Amino acid sequence: MAVPSIEPRRIGVLLVNLGTPDAAEPGAVRRYLAEFLSDKRVVEIPAVLWKPILHGIILRTRPKKSAHAYAQVWRADGSPLAAITRLQAAALRDAFGPQVIVDYAMRYGNPAIADRLAALKDQGCDRILIAPLYPQYCAATTATANDKAFEALAAMRWQPAIRTLPPYHDDPAYIGALAASVRASLERLDFEPQAIVASFHGMPQRTKELGDPYHDHCRTTARLLSEALGRELILAFQSRFGRAKWLEPATDTTLEALPGKGITRVAIVAPGFSADCVETLEELAIRGRESFERAGGQRFAYLPCLNDDGPGIDMLRIVIKRELEGWMRLP
Predict the structure, then answer these.
(1) Comparing 6-20, 25-39, 88-102, 105-119, which segment has the lowest mean pLDDT?
(2) Domains in the chain: how many in total?
C-alpha cells in the first residue's frame, strides 16, 4: 500500500470576500447572480417560491443592468473587489513568516474557496485559518463563506485543522484603522463636509428578528467610529432589493433628505466593506452623488474603503495574527 507523501507542515490563511462576475458583461453577471441568489443564506425564501422568480424574472432582466454598473467601475486588472482582495493577500504574504501561506478566494465566482483550500493543502498546510473579510457578522456573508469552506472539507479524506476569523466590528485595531483612513480622506478634500454618512450594506428586517447580530454590529461600529473621530455620523443601510422591509434608514433616501435639512456638503464612508466594489464605487460614489445633487446637494465625496492601504493591512495583520496564536510562535 502506497504511503501518502507528507509535505513540510505549513499554515494557510485564506482571505474570503463576497465575489464578482468574471467580466462586466451580461452573461458573466448572469452566472454570478445565479450562484449568489441561489444561496439559501442570502435569500431565505422557500425554493419552490423563489426559483420561478429568480429564473423567470430576475436572471432575465437584472444582468444587463448590473453589467452596466460593473462596467463603470471595472479596472484594468479586473473587478475592483477581486483585484483589491488579491492585493491584500499579496501585502500580507510575508507578514507571518515563511511557514504561513496567505491566499484569497471569493464566495461566489473565482477563485473558488474549494480550489484555494485544495491549493493550500497541496502546499503542505495542515492548519488553515478561513478569514471572511466582513467586520460585522451576518449569516448571509460570514456564515455562508464558512459554509462553503466546510462543504469543501467534507469532500476531503485528509482534512486540515480549521479556524475561522471572528467578526471584528468593535476591535480597537479596526476602529483605529477606519478612523485613520477617514481622517486622511477628509484632509484630501477641498471642502468641509457638514455631515458624514456611514453606509452599511442592508439586510431584510426579518434577519434581525430571527437573531442575526448584523444590525447591532453595524450600530456598534458606527458609534465607536463616531467617538474615535469626535464627530457625529449618520447611520444608513444601502442596497435594498425586493419588496420586503429592510433595515432602515435607507442610504438613498437619507442622502435625498439631507439638502432639505440645510446639509449641502456631505461625505460618505462604507465601514462594512473591506474593499471597494460595485456597491461602493457605483452605488455610492456615482448613484449616491447623483441622488444627493438632484435633491439640491452641492458638494459630495465618497471616502474609500480600507482596501490595501497601510492602515487596513496593519489591521488585518493584527486580527489574523491573534487567531494564529497557539498554532505558531509569532513575534
Answers:
(1) 6-20
(2) 1
* Residues forming beta bridges with residue 302, ordered by sequence position: 268
- Distance, in Å, from the CA atom of 145 to the CA atom of 108, rounded to the nearest integer, reads 9
- Over residues 156-172, the mean pLDDT reads 97
Residue 272 maps to a domain: yes
Q: Is the pTM of this model over 0.85?
A: yes
- CA dist., res. 250 & res. 246, Å (int): 8
- Flag whether 222 is in a domain: yes
For 296-318, letters b (16+ CB in 10 Å) and e give ebebbbbbbbbbbbebbbbbbeb
Amino acid at 146: N
Report pLDDT for 242.
76
The three cell numbers of residue 276 are 471597494
Q: Is residue 244 part of a domain?
A: yes
Q: pLDDT per residue over 311-328, tens digit each?
A: 999 999 999 999 999 998
Grid coordinates representing 11 are 499554515
3-state secondary structure 182-234: HHHHHHCCCCCCCEEEEEEECCEHHHHHCCCCHHHHHHHHHHHHHHHHCCCCE
* CATH code of the domain covering residue 215: 3.40.50.1400
Residue 181 lies in domain:
172-303
- The whole-angstrom separation of Cα 288 and Cα 177 is 24
- Environment class of 98 (CB within 10 Å of its CB; exposed 0-12, middle 13-18, buried 19+): exposed
The answer as to whether 49 is a domain residue is no
Q: Are 315 and 174 in contact (CB under 8 A)?
A: yes
Which grid coordinates belong to 160?
Answer: 486540515
